[in-house]
User: Which sequence fits this backbone?
């Protein structure tokens, strides 16, 4: 390489060296600001865990959150990540990413659940946070709906038609489609207790979002654990990207995501580290091991090569960064590269099995 450009690719003629060169990793879904919750949340089921997370957030100081966001960004760098799709609620994501030299897209989360009577004021406050970050980031920061059940319908329709990229949590558990199909389950009860009058759509959350116009190019659906063949067909036809976060899903007892079927349908699936609050330590190798394990336990296995591609697939973020180059090791490309010191590894499966952040070095 010369500076940041690949000059030549040729056969190695010297003694073998104990490392493998690869394009850097892509974290397709992240919450850097939750780094301070690592090991702190004890609930083992999604809805109880989410309630605990909301309570914990209210007691965190801005100074601490900023520090933890920066720490999480540097840990992403240590595990070989060069590109992140970051969900941001507090205004520190840009500072964290820039401090670690990581590129990507920042999505400012919009939640109007508690502000439905003054949703425009809430959206404007979110827009202000995005604007403050964009002055540091020097790129657009996209407002994004957090999830179907935390954003009012009119705001969801506005996101559907504004043409901007967005990233939304979808079908992480069966509770979301219980809400949309039948207006039952813990999410529906929570909304009723808060004064919402939900009307069942009779359809899954994916199909309900599609009817609102949110299944479209420029959309990323995060998790997609509780989806069926019809949902997958809708997402594939609509050119929706997907972020798969297996360690978080395992931790929160979510259904195993049908990644094999999504890939076979032509959906661009990336691998996301999610947040330390649910995934644990920031380790792309551990995430790849989990992706392999979940697919094997489902009986619809992914190959190690497919999982590695998911972890290095810059194309999975093209929904938000249209001019992003494919990351290939070819002369003339500016692909960020890492080398992984792995004595005795002869296959991609070996790399995934023995890899860890301590073995990563930047080229």
Assistant:
């Amino acid at each position: 390489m010369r500076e940041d450009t690949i000059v030549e690719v040729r056969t190695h003629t010297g003694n073998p060296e104990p490392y493998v060169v690869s394009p850097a990793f892509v974290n397709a879904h992240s919450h850097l600001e939750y780094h301070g919750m690592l090991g702190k949340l004890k609930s083992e089921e999604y809805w109880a865990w989410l309630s605990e997370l909301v309570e914990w957030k209210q007691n965190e100081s801005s100074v601490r959150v900023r520090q933890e966001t920066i720490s999480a960004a540097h840990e992403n760098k240590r595990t070989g990540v060069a590109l992140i799709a970051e969900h941001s609620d507090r205004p520190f994501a840009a500072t964290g990413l820039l401090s670690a030299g990581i590129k990507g897209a920042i999505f400012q989360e919009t939640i109007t659940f508690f502000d439905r009577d003054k949703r425009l004021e809430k959206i404007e406050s979110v827009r202000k946070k995005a604007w403050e970050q964009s002055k540091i980031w020097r790129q657009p920061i996209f407002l994004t709906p957090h999830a179907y059940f935390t954003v009012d319908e009119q705001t969801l329709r506005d996101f559907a038609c504004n043409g901007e990229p967005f990233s939304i949590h979808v079908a992480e558990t069966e509770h979301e489609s219980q809400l949309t199909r039948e207006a039952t389950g813990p999410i529906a009860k929570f909304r009723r207790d808060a004064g919402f009058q939900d009307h069942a759509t009779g359809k899954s959350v994916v199909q309900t979002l599609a009817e609102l116009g949110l299944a479209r190019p420029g959309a990323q659906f995060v998790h997609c654990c509780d989806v069926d063949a019809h949902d997958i067909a809708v997402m594939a036809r609509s050119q929706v990207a997907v972020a798969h976060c297996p360690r978080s899903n395992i931790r929160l007892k979510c259904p195993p995501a049908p990644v094999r079927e999504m890939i076979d349908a032509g959906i661009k699936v990336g691998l996301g580290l999610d947040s330390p609050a649910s995934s644990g330590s920031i380790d792309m190798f551990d995430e790849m091991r989990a992706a392999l394990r979940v697919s094997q336990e489902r009986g619809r296995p992914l190959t190690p090569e497919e999982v590695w591609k998911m972890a290095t697939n810059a194309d999975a973020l093209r929904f938000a960064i249209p001019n992003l180059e494919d990351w290939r090791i070819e002369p003339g490309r500016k692909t960020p590269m890492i080398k992984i010191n792995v004595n005795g590894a002869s296959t991609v499966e070996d790399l995934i099995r023995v890899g860890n952040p301590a073995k990563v070095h930047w080229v």
User: Anything to note?
Assistant: The longest strand covers residues 81-88. The longest helix spans residues 119-137. The chain has one domain: 19-362.
